[in-house]
Amino acid sequence: MTGDVHSSFLATAENMKSGKIQLFPNPVSDYIRISGITKAENVEIYNISGQLVRTETFKDRLNVSELSAGTFILRIKDADGKNYEFKFIKK
Description:
The structure is a single chain. Helix content is 7%, strand content 46%. It is mainly β. β1 (22-24) and β2 (31-35) form a beta hairpin. The longest helix is centred in the N-terminal third of the chain and has 6 residues, at 13-18.
């Protein structure tokens, strides 16, 4: 199952217009893939309460298997200082 999360209220307006950045699958069990971004530098994952759970260097495939089941926010920071936020569900 793949999905484009641009309809999320957390996506930036620029993201929603471009329609290029995608996170899939959503919901996810083990690995989440990110496509459509080239200048990303790092990734932060927050729980639904806003607490930072994890920070790491950007990769187009993230292992989220150790996260507990629930809803999370994935923030991607790029080289230009822009932030892109997406909501995903961990099974």
